[in-house]
């Protein structure tokens, strides 16, 4: 068996230890004689899985008691609609547009009310996070929305925007559990699992209880009402049982690594190796303003499309896969989520150095 170094933006690399454990339990989960895939979501065994997963996530993020944790489906895209449907009481929301995902969320919200774009970095191809210290927050805004880590462009909010007392909603799909967060600063934190947490098909939403009400926009489907899922403890309908089981295993792995503070140190170390090289390289250049650099997604270019393509091809042959940049920006992107070992980044940098020498 040979595993590659997988730099995919998502679905992405998962800890090998977790995958091995899941493989061992595949045919007989803890003496039940069946796989978690074959198990009723109402069974005692699955109840234990989902309760333990929630408890471990609460411990990792220090989630206060007045926040609910929901395991949902429909991808982050479904949250682009659920958020306005559930929160737009005044039918006004403010969006900070720092990339394609924030833009899509902003566009979706326009279906339900007035969604104001109060800041953007589109003028420079989303290569920075705009100054959010004094934003024109709408007096009647129901919430202020950010995408905290921009997967495609490789930027991250280093400080949260001043929302002037309005509820902050954040898409953390590509930085979930990569570092500690102060949950109390947010009304909703949500993210798709398929980058840092588990397989695709699970969305985790952490929502302050006062935002979970029956007072949703008229016509909001039962399944798209947060209260439905909160009241049923994420078991209103059949959830993605296997996905939740895998997320739970990753939470346990994170606890074993020392929690989110240790993860942050590990991620900073990894990112530094790559950014330091990009800063000194003559051939490769990072595309993001240094102050906005993500620890998770690192886009870079050579400035020559043919050379980019040659690099991606040769890297793939050498076992460094999924380095092609997002189709909307081109170039390269290395996603170095929690489960990417430091050796993977060191080996990538060694390969880039060799490529640079050979193609100078
Ligand atoms: N938000 C962010 C930050 C993402 O990176 C992605 C996907 O890559 C999405 C939203 C969309 O996620 P999904 O495909 O789960 O709807």
UniProtKB/TrEMBL annotation:
Cofactor entry: pyridoxal 5'-phosphate
Free-text comment on the cofactor: Binds 1 pyridoxal phosphate per subunit.
Gene Ontology MF, one: O-phospho-L-serine:2-oxoglutarate aminotransferase activity
Compartmental location: Cytoplasm
Reaction catalysis annotation: 4-(phosphooxy)-L-threonine + 2-oxoglutarate = (R)-3-hydroxy-2-oxo-4-phosphooxybutanoate + L-glutamate; O-phospho-L-serine + 2-oxoglutarate = 3-phosphooxypyruvate + L-glutamate
Residue positions where N6-(pyridoxal phosphate)lysine is found in the record: 195
Principal place of residence: cytoplasm
Stretches assigned to the Aminotransferase class V domain: 4-348
Top-tier EC class: transferase
Amino-acid positions noted as binding pyridoxal 5'-phosphate in the UniProt annotation, renumbered to this chain: 101, 151, 171, 194, 237-238
One Pfam family linked to the record: Aminotran_5
Domain of life: Bacteria
Binding site residues for L-glutamate: 42
Pathway the protein contributes to: Amino-acid biosynthesis; L-serine biosynthesis; L-serine from 3-phospho-D-glycerate: step 2/3
Keywords attached to this entry: Amino-acid biosynthesis, Aminotransferase, Cytoplasm, Pyridoxal phosphate, Serine biosynthesis, Transferase
InterPro entries: Aminotrans_V_dom (IPR000192), Pser_aminoTfrase (IPR022278), PyrdxlP-dep_Trfase (IPR015424), PyrdxlP-dep_Trfase_major (IPR015421), PyrdxlP-dep_Trfase_small (IPR015422)
E.C. number: 2.6.1.52
Family label: Belongs to the class-V pyridoxal-phosphate-dependent aminotransferase family. SerC subfamily.
Function: Catalyzes the reversible conversion of 3-phosphohydroxypyruvate to phosphoserine and of 3-hydroxy-2-oxo-4-phosphonooxybutanoate to phosphohydroxythreonine.
Subunit architecture: Homodimer.
NCBIfam families according to UniProt: PRK05355.1, serC_1
The name this protein goes by in its record: Phosphoserine aminotransferase
Organism: Blautia celeris
